[in-house]
Amino acid sequence: MMHSALIVAVIALVTALIRFAPFLLFPQDRELPAIVTKLSSLLPSAVIGMLVVYCLKGVKLLSSPHGIPELVSCAFVVLLHVWRRNTLLSILGGTALYMILLQLVFR
Questions:
Q1: How does pLDDT run across 30-77, given as a tens digit for each residue?
Q2: CA neighbours closer than 13 Å in the CB half-sphere of residue 89
Q3: What's the CA gap between 10 and 14, in Å, rounded?
Q4: What is the model's pTM?
Q5: Of all helices (H) and strands (E), which one includes residue 84?
Q6: CA–CA gap between residue 85 and residue 16 (Å, rounded)
Q7: Of 23, 76, 91, 95, which residue is least crowded by CB atoms under 10 Å?
Q8: Degrees, nearest 5: CA angle 10-15-87
């Protein structure tokens, strides 16, 4: 029991330190370093790109359903995002459409 409590305490401490580190390293009264500013503009797109590659890496184009649910869902996400400019809506809408296609259309 004590071992589990210590593990939880260490995990909580590390999580708190990770969350507070940016505020400790970059106080509000100083300007951010140029590299941090540059990374903050580049990383979101890079992460989204990596997630797309990760999600589509297992698609089998030569076997049924030939990646059609994935392609339709990706196109839907892009159209929904262009139309509404809401990331959460785009993600939820694309996920819901993909699940509907898998469960009801491409059984």
A1: 888 999 899 989 998 899 899 899 999 999 999 889 999 999 999 999
A2: 9
A3: 6
A4: 0.66
A5: helix 68-84
A6: 32
A7: 23
A8: 155
